Amino acid sequence: MELIGMGIVGCGGMSFQHMLGLTQAKGVRVSAIAEPKRENREKFIKFTSPGIEHKVARDEAFRKRVLKAREMLTSCVPYSNLDRMLERESLDAVLIVTPHLFHHRQVLDALEAGLHVLVEKPMVCTSRHGEDIVKAARKSGKVVGVAYQRHMLPEFVYMRDNVQSGKLGKVEHISYTLYQDWYQFTKGTWRRSPKYAGGGELMDSGSHILDVALWITGLKPKRVYAQMRYFDARVDVNSALTIEFTGGAIAQIAIVGKTTMGWAEELTVTGASGTLRYQQGRMTRYDDRGKKTTPKVPRRATATPVGNFVDAIRRKAPIAAPPEWGLAVARLTEAAFQSAKKGRPVIL
Question: Quick one: which of 151, 148, 182, 149 has its CA closest to 264?
Fold first, then answer.
């Protein structure tokens, strides 16, 4: 098995999570990292932070993964920017984990260098940039994916299979709510800056929610009406979207970024002959007569976005979230921001 030479672009918080995913992938060499902040580069190469050290002290399995990550990073070369890394390193692929507004240019540069690309969500912040990446990805023939991990999680795969096989009948309504203390933990970070983030909670964690609503149902948005609250932030914190789909289905999506309850996720898909409800990992099913059951969700081999990415490069599996999904989310997000600004529904 030939080693896949991987470069990591951006060494903030999420890069640590993806590095842990890479420890479970076989035949990968982390050859280089690109990160403008020296402090971030040093922390990442040493693979240490207060949170990691705390968990290492109480979780033996986690400790082994951290040790493997440190071993994989011992010979990696640090760079202060992507351009220099692309010029000097012989890579096969890159993982892009940078602020949102950097993604577009960095993905295109990596594809132009002949590399496979996995990019964190959101793939881009505008539909035009999304179209650029889809076009470039198709032309390159390289694997390009977005790190939407719910495409591999058993509960969401189960919901998608049931919805798209017609077991719920025609989809009539989707209700999806995300609660997150985003307002509190993003204070003072780039995620609150329009210059780097392109938007707030809807663009950030909300990207996962819009993606799942589209991916599970396969429906095409026709019209969206959105309201947003910024509080004292420069970006959106709370959002409420009503989406009308081609075919008549309606979705109500709430992204609540200012709450004291931490993280909570609730999704209900209502069809003409059945309903599926997901609440914090628990699945409930209602049949056409209203009978309530707890379905057995088929277990799947543990998969991470980077693990799937490596498998796709080796042609062992399709990429779970190709760039077309990133474009679909960008179009819907863009329309939601336009609606909130104009105070009226926007047609996609």
Answer: 182
Identify the DSSP state of 192: G
CB 211 within 8 A of CB 150: yes
The CATH code of the domain that includes 127 is 3.40.50.720
End-to-end CA, the chain: 46
Residues 189 and 262 in one domain: yes
Residues 136, 154 within the same domain: no
Q: Same domain for 133 and 165?
A: no
Please give the residue range of the domain that contains residue 232.
150-300+330-347
The contacts of residue 220 (CB under 8 Å, 6+ apart) are 245, 246
Do 142 and 266 belong to one domain? no
The verdict on 117 and 163 lying in the same domain is no
| Structure confidence by residue, pLDDT tens digits, 20-77 | 999 999 999 999 999 999 999 999 999 988 778 878 878 899 999 999 999 999 999 9
Distance of CA 337 to the CA centre of its chain: 19
At 98-117, the pLDDT tens digits run: 999 999 999 999 999 999 99
Contacts of 53 (CB under 8 A, 6+ apart): none
pLDDT band for 1, please (50, 70, 90 cuts).
low
Entry pTM: 0.96
CB burial readout 235-264, b (16+ within 10 A) else e: bbbbbbbebbbeeebebebbbbbbbeeeee
Whether residue 316 is found in the same domain as residue 222? no
